[in-house]
Specification:
The protein has 6 helices and no strands. By secondary structure, the chain is mainly alpha-helical.
Length: 178
């Protein structure tokens, strides 16, 4: 970008011209910042894709290694003096026991999963408040009912809000962001 103090006749410029130059400079700065952000995001996406591909390749190689290691375990047991069929049976039973232990661990973890209690309570609160509130009258109705009708509907809404149980901090934040 150019240096504004270096432009000839800078003292003779009007306020409008200075604002126009400042606006043009700010626009160029914003465009440069956007281009920089795009370049950084593009580079991060490339790194992420490369990392993901390498992880997938490593997972496939690991899956290829499982049968090889299974055969090695079975033949290793056979080498210790057990028959080949029994060696493969012992290896298979070992994998089944490992799978059963992992399944029990997973079930124990899944039993600890609870529903989002704060969100459910907040939704119930909102539903309770909205059930007690009447919609505002239309413009034609407001002119016939006058000021008293508007005060009645707002006091009903106020009473519904006062009757609702107190909110905890998380549900208040969730409502304010919605």
């Amino acid at each position: 970008m150019s240096d504004p103090g270096n432009i000839a006749g800078n003292a003779d410029r009007s306020l409008g011209q200075l604002v126009a130059v400042a606006t043009a400079e700010m626009s160029a700065l914003v465009h440069d910042e956007i281009a920089l952000a795009k370049a950084e995001v593009r580079q991060d996406v490339k790194r992420g894709v490369t990392g993901s591909v390498v992880i997938i390749i490593a997972g496939v190689l690991f899956l290829f290694a499982i049968p090889v290691l299974s055969f090695a375990a079975a033949y290793g047991i056979h080498y210790l003096g057990l028959g080949l069929a029994w060696s493969f049976l012992v290896t298979g039973v070992g994998f089944m026991l490992l799978a059963a232990l992992l399944a029990l661990f997973a079930v124990a973890k899944l039993k600890k999963v609870k529903p989002p209690e704060k969100s459910i309570a907040s939704a119930k609160q909102t539903a309770a408040v909205l059930q007690g509130v009447k919609p505002h009258p239309r413009a034609a109705d407001a002119s016939t009912t006058g000021r008293a009708g508007a005060e009645i509907s707002s006091t009903r809404a106020d009473r519904a809000l006062e009757a609702a149980p107190e909110q905890d901090e998380a549900s208040a934040v969730a409502r304010s962001s919605a």
